[in-house]
Amino acid sequence: MFIRFLYTLLLSLAAPFLMWGLYKKRTGKPSVGNRWKEHFGVTSPLANSKQPIWIHAVSVGETLAVTPLIKKLKQQYPDQNILITTTTPTGAEQAAKLADIAEHRYMPFDFSFAVRGFIKAVNPSQMLIMETELWPNTVHTVAKMRIPITVINARLSERSYQRYAKFQLVFNLLANNLTKVLCQYPDDAERFIRLGVAREKVAVTGSIKFDIEISPQVKQQGQQLREQLGKNRPVWIAASTHQGEDEQILFAHQEVLKQYSNALLILVPRHPERFNTVFELAKQQFTTVRRTEQNSQVIDENVQVYLGDTMGEMLVLMEAADICFMGGSLLGDKVGGHNMLEPAVLGKTVVTGPSYYNFSEIARVLISNNLALVVENQNHLAESIIAMINKHRKTENLNNYHDILSNYQGGIKKTIDEIVKI
């Protein structure tokens, strides 16, 4: 009790700064607007009064990852009401695309009063937490109101395990209130058990991310975009880049242009508030156009950088490229990479920096099957892109990917099977 009190006190002191970061208006970033009250538990009732399954996905990445599960769950149980919560407005924007099968609300801040108000308004039958977004007051309050809590697609790297272990008393508060922890891999399960989660609560269901499906519409849009960009020029994409990484990408592109003067880089920053900054950075060195300001159907061959400054179009942009560098991986241990499965399933040659610990198992599978290459720095990246341009093997990549995919699929089915038992 004292630990939770102390945590709440510290959270109260930090809350104004957290809210400033969340509510501050930034160009290119959607706003919470008048829905800010939802963060404090003031939430309008759902359109459907039937108890929903409540799925929490923090932001864009988690929302995208859980989308196939939501669709499959609704397909198998069409009468089941589904509620998805996000903390960020960018996550809300992505969740809005599921409006026909799931309602969206903002996740209340981790104060007990806010969580209680939220629960009274939406009356969920159970809560599913995507990956490891565990908040002490939320978990305590939800469990106290006798609502089962399941962590799905759970992952716990050795690095994260060491961090949690330093605050074992706090983690004990979480572990005792969890109903189930459905892990991606056996190593994740063992770490949760070592942290104190009862063994009978832990199961291995696999990563739902391996069950990725690309719609024909996305492929068609990507192919149409490639027609506009130029079918006969080399095109590579740097996806989900972070601050400090864009400069390295642009350096590599300078080197690529020395060998292939008509090469095009599709540059897609991870966070929309950085779109303008990255555009100005690219414009200093290259002829650059923004996707949102594309005035003609055909992009002039003099254009060297195409800035992907839209949300929810990453797969379309990836489909339009030959080679994909996955960002968040050239910054030491700051980020830990992003999901490489999406470009792989599209048949792209995948390149990553050396830091991919957030997706270590996915990376291991792709690297060991020659579907992904690790580069150490910007010079190595440039050399690799140049070497790959003449070796684009989309058909071969697709065949290899689907050959190995069957060994890792089934996470969504196993997860749903566990959910419906509750």
Question: Care to describe what's here?
Answer:
The protein has helices spanning 2-23, 60-76, 89-95, 112-122, 136-144, 158-165, 168-175, 186-194, 216-229, 246-259, 275-283, 314-319, 341-345, 360-368, 378-389, 394-405, 411-419, and strands at 52-56, 81-86, 103-106, 126-130, 149-154, 180-183, 202-204, 235-241, 264-269, 288-290, 305-307, 323-326, 349-352, 372-374. By secondary structure, the chain is an alpha/beta fold. The strands form two sheets. A seven-stranded parallel β-sheet has the order 3-2-1-4-5-6-7, sandwiched between helices. A seven-stranded parallel β-sheet has the order 10-11-9-8-12-13-14. Helix 10 packs across helix 15 (378-389). The protein is globular. The model has no long low-confidence stretch (mean pLDDT 91).
Write the layout of secondary structure elements.
Layout: H1 2-23, E1 52-56, H2 60-76, E2 81-86, H3 89-95, E3 103-106, H4 112-122, E4 126-130, H5 136-144, E5 149-154, H6 158-165, H7 168-175, E6 180-183, H8 186-194, E7 202-204, H9 216-229, E8 235-241, H10 246-259, E9 264-269, H11 275-283, E10 288-290, E11 305-307, H12 314-319, E12 323-326, H13 341-345, E13 349-352, H14 360-368, E14 372-374, H15 378-389, H16 394-405, H17 411-419
Parallel strand pairs: 1-2, 1-4, 2-3, 4-5, 5-6, 6-7, 8-9, 8-12, 9-11, 10-11, 12-13, 13-14
As for the CATH topology of the largest domain, it is Rossmann fold
Which homologous superfamily in CATH is the superfamily of the largest domain?
Glycogen Phosphorylase B
Read across the widest sheet, the strand sequence of neighbours is 3-2-1-4-5-6-7
Mean pLDDT rating: 91
CATH architectural name of the largest domain: 3-Layer(aba) Sandwich
Number of separate structural domains: 2
Helix residue percentage? 40-55%
User: What class do helices, strands and sheet pairing give?
Assistant: alpha/beta
Q: What does the main sheet amount to?
A: 7 strands, parallel
Regions with little confidence, pLDDT below 50 for 5+ residues: none
Number of helices: 17
Radius of gyration in whole Å, from Cα?
22 Å
Q: Which CATH class of the largest domain is shown?
A: Alpha Beta
Query: Termini distance?
Result: 28 Å
Overall 3D shape: globular
